Structure of DUF4194 domain-containing protein:
Amino acid sequence: MTSIFPADLSTLLINLLKGVLYRDDDQPGWQNLIEQQAAVRDYIQLLGLELILDDAEGYAYLRQSQQDNEDGKSTIPTLIPRRQLSYPVSLLLALLRKRLAESDASSSDARLILSRDQLVELIRLFLPESSNEAKLIDRIDSHIAKVVELGFLRKLKGQQEPLYEVRRILKAFIDAQWLNEFDQRLAEYAALSNTEGEQE
C-alpha cells in the first residue's frame, strides 16, 4: 500500500508528535516544517491538535486543541496529556523563566547557560532547610533532571563542569503576564515550602 504522505512529511509529523522541534538542533527538519506548515496543520487538526510555531525563538510543538462541548468537557480524547508537576519542579521552572527574562533584558546573547552550582543556588533558597546537605543537593539534582526530561533544560556535552542551556520554549509555558505576578507567586511558594518540610 502506497503512503499518501511524502516521507519527509511523515518524518516531520512523527518528530513533532514525539516532542519539541528546535531550529538549532535540526535545521533541515525546521526548513521542512516551514515549507510544509499548512499540510502539518491540516493533518494534526484531525487529531485535535494545533501547531505552535515560534520562528523568532526557533521552536515548534503540538498542543491539544480546546474543543469543548456545552459541559466544558473535551469532545475528543486527549492525545497529549497534561503533566502534574511537583512544587520544586514548578518553582525551578518559574525561577528559570525569570532568569531568562533578565538575561534577555541585559544581554545580547540569545542563549542562557547556567552551571549546576548556579541552578542549585537558584532554588535552594526557596526549599525547606535540611540538616543533611548531601541529601538536599541530591534532591535538587533530581529536580534538575526532571526539568531536563521535560525539555526546558539541555545538558551541554563535553564540559568538565555540568552546564545547562535554558531552552527558550520555556517562554511559551510561562508567559509575561505570569512573570509579572512572579513575586506574589514566590511568596506563595515560600509559604508552601514551610508546610511541606522534608517532603519530595
Q: What stands out?
A: The radius of gyration is 20 Å. The chain is about 50% helix and 10% strand. The mean pLDDT is 81. The CA atoms of residues 21 and 82 lie 19 Å apart.
